[in-house]
Amino acid sequence: MSAGSVAVVVPEDIEVPSWDLYEVSIPCTVFGQPHPDLADPWYDLRLCGMGEGRSDLSGSWLTVRTDYGLDGLAGADTVIVPSVPDACVEDGAPVPPALVAALRRAHADGARIVSLCTGAFALAEAGLLDGRRATAHWMHTAQLAERYPKVRVDDSVLYVDEGDVLTSAGLTAGLDLCLHLVRRDLGAHIANQLARRMVVPAHRPGGQAQFIELSVPATDDEGLAPVLEWAGAHLDEPLTVEELARRAAMSSRTFYRRLRASTGMTPLQWLLNQRLASARSLLESTDLPITKIGELSGLGTANNLRHHFLKQLGVSPGDYRRAFPARHRPDSGRG
After folding, report:
1. Which DSSP string corresponds to 23-89?
2. What class has domain 270-328?
3. Is the pLDDT of residue 281 over 90?
């Protein structure tokens, strides 16, 4: 496995709202800070301005230096467009033609193209989303759908992975997508360790709803955090909604409602997600038999494990493990 190179397009108008700056900083934080203990080499990050070559983009209170122009997209394994100017979204102004052309060239050369929030408008303008499912921040999906009718816009999800083209909703959903990319490139174990260092949920599935009643993850719910931590340590045991609710000192109905509001998932969906994550980590980091991994993750028999992997991930457990050579499994788990 190789982390590869990531080119991030920095918009020209850096006097942008703070949430746009946050979206620019997300890929810089995830891909730009080396973690040699997790993967060496880490990603090679490039900041690419909209002009040619190095430039200093100055606003009233911020200066961003980019060492590359749009020519920096050439040869990158992944290209990320965090946003486009507000005028492109609100006023129908054209997406900069040079950016559109650079995205088309990068995609044709085999790069993985990614947008965060309004960056989807650039991908759509380049024709990379035609006939594909895509998303953006729910405040902008109506404009995206109206302007680009060939795009199948989904305003209800955090991110969409179409293989070589990925899109996300705004703000923290962009972080979810970047961690998803790390998970794809380097595996669930490394992505989970990175998320832990960033003090964020290790995995929010892309299909999770943008619209949730609470703006904080479930682990910040003082009533839910202890029982969810306990459940994560006992995935190999039979767990029921009634037992989890009892441990949380709630009725089953209240527990169901609060977990759904906090995570966008039902208790059973949450448990399945945790068990799949556990199984993936065990497949990546140990040589344990598939049957044993089914038991330890709480997914039961090898057939049941295979069923859920094929349904949720599209691959068998064996094929998933083969993507992670033995040298990436320091702990064989054989005692």
Report:
1. HHHHHHHHHHS--TTT-SS--EEEEE-SSSS-EEEE-SS-EEEESB-GGGGTT-SEEEE----HHHH
2. mainly alpha
3. no
User: For 38-67, how does the pLDDT look when each residue is reduced to its tens digit (9 = 90+)?
Assistant: 999 999 999 998 866 555 555 555 667 788
Cα(154)–Cα(145) distance, integer angstroms: 9
Residue type, 309: F
- Assigned token pair, 320: 């998933």
In percent, the amount of the chain with pLDDT more than 90 equals 48
* Structure tokens belonging to residue 270: 């949450």
Arch. (CATH architecture) of 5-190: 3-Layer(aba) Sandwich (3.40)
Q: Which of 322, 216, 88 is nearest to 99 (CA)?
A: 88
DSSP label at residue 323? T
Q: Look at residue 241 and give its three-state secondary structure.
A: helix
Task: Reply yes or no on whether the pLDDT at 177 is more than 50.
Answer: yes
pLDDT band at 219 (very low <50, low <70, confident <90, very high): very low
Fold match, 5-190 / 270-328: no
What is the reported pLDDT for 213?
32
Over 70: is that where the pLDDT of 280 sits?
yes
Tokens (6 digits) for 120: 């989807």
> Is the separation of the CB atoms in 63 and 47 below 8 Å?
no
pTM above 0.70, yes or no: no
Strand ranges (DSSP E) for the chain? 5-9, 44-48, 55-58, 63-66, 78-81, 112-116, 133-134, 152-153, 159-161, 165-168
Quickly state the pLDDT bin for 19 (edges 50, 70, 90).
low
Q: Where do the structural domains in the chain lie, given as residue ranges?
A: 5-190, 270-328
Torsion of the alpha carbons at 230, 236, 238 and 242, rounded to the nearest 10: 20
